[in-house]
Amino acid sequence: MYAEIVRTLARHERVDVMVNGASWEKRARAVLEKADALSDNVCFHRWRTNRVWTRDSGCIFLTPSAEHHDADSGLLALHFQFNGWAKYPNYNFDEKVGERMAKDAGVRVVQPVFVDSSKNVHRVVLEGGSIDVNGCGALLTTEECLLSTTQQRNLPMDRAAYEQLFADYFGAQSVIWLESGIAGDDTHGHVDDITRFAGPNTVVSMVEPNEQSENYAALHANLGRLKNARTAEGQKLEIVEIPMPRPVVFEGRQLPTSYANFYIANGAVLAPVFNDPNDRIALNTLAEVFPTREIVPIYCGDLIWGFGALHCMTQQQPGR
Fold it and tell me: Catalytic residue positions?
């Protein structure tokens, strides 16, 4: 699976692969070579990690807008604090990933902070999977992830504080708050499992037609909010619906299987599939949404045991 992902991406863009050390790099190279996936577009970094979920532990790269493209507004990286989703204690290696990514890219690093009512300064905890943006001033997130007291990332911050944060650091003029994520989501409500931007005014959103499903109420409520949402320009969203795959249960726990966890590459979209009848619907829908990109199905049955998929394990960065 990893070789398939690397082989596909390396045809369209540079692929940076993190390994835990020299021996791991040797093993990875051997696997990629056997799979005809090793090329000059693949670069290894011997950075030890706790988990594969780079979307959440890595930095978020920003490029200057056209109207602010000057010497003082070049490429930068937002390095948010990472704390294991406010759930796990073993994240000491992962929390260093963002800074290492930024340093390797040679870009300016910004550590977002929040100043509370007592003038105390707090580094902000935020995972890349908890937000999604359209690149035109609109941002998607969920109340379950950022406003709940369960797995609470930033104790002093409320809705208004987050919206100011998104405006200050992402230039977000419109924040679209969905209610909650899907069943089995270990992150407690990441938006990249439910709704994703596919264009300035277009979102791909998961739906559950089965009223008996654990996900029905949450996804139905989210859909209602999307229908009432507006972009930064005041435009209504074009909502493209994809039905959820059947529940996948492992050791008595439902896993967060979702077609929304796709990764958009330069010339391709890596789409998670689960050997489910709805795989075909998801692939055909994504092909219509991304007509200029190759849609590549990647079986994620193994990845999802770790409660994530393709978007979770990747983090895009501007070309160099």
Answer: 312
